[in-house]
Amino acid sequence: MSESSKILVVDDEAQIRKLLRISLQAHGFQVSEAETGEDGIVQISTIRPDLVVLDLGLPDIEGIEVLRRVREWSQVPVIVLTARDQEEDKIEALNIGADDYVTKPFGMGELMARIRVALRHISKTTEEPILSLGPLVIDVSRRIVELNGEKVKLTPTEYELLKVLATNAGRVITHRALFEQVWGDKFYESDSQPVRVHIGNLRKKIEMDPTRPHLILTEPGVGYRFIPQGD
């Protein structure tokens, strides 16, 4: 992550933009602003930001539509800002390709943590042969998982779930995204019960206390987030 990373804030509220500009500049980021979705799309294509903070409630076109159009030609990291009653929009944004979300009202500490994770994620290679995540080590090429130096026996499904979560460490992965990446094109059941069951079994094998997980955290109503020990 570069200290001079460029961040575009797309939000129609002047006070929010000012708050973000001052705070982000204080952390060494270059900040650009857009108050409409259309302007945001134009700026993404022209200034090529390293990350976008996108409000879902914009005056001209919905933030969801902005994200959908941008994802047709760009994989720039996008963190969406949502209101507390926008859970369905939040899930849809993540499924379309948002990297993370922050719920209004939010603390700058939380947003900065999300930004650092998103920027760190794109700076890594997309397919690391070995993932070292604190006491947990995943040898991707050999499909071997070790916890504190000892091999962990996982079912193929448990391994695939862990791989998806670990390679996206720090990011929210929705139930639907997990299902589609692990089970492929099979029919997705909206109750997400298969994902929940296998996550529960996986936690029993890699968490010190499965009832109080520290590695695989639940994002209520949305999905899961993998947090390497020490993050």
From TrEMBL:
Q: Which InterPro entries match?
A: CheY-like_superfamily, OmpR/PhoB-type_DNA-bd, Sig_transdc_resp-reg_receiver, WalR-like, WH-like_DNA-bd_sf
Residue range(s) of DNA binding per entry = 128-228
Response regulatory domain location is: 6-119
Q: Can you give the residue ranges of the OmpR/PhoB-type domain?
A: 128-228
Q: Which UniProt keywords apply?
A: DNA-binding, Phosphoprotein, Transcription, Transcription regulation, Two-component regulatory system
Q: What PANTHER family does its record include?
A: KDP OPERON TRANSCRIPTIONAL REGULATORY PROTEIN KDPE (PTHR48111:SF50), REGULATOR OF RPOS (PTHR48111)
Name assigned to this protein: Response regulator
Q: Which organism is it from?
A: Alicyclobacillus fodiniaquatilis
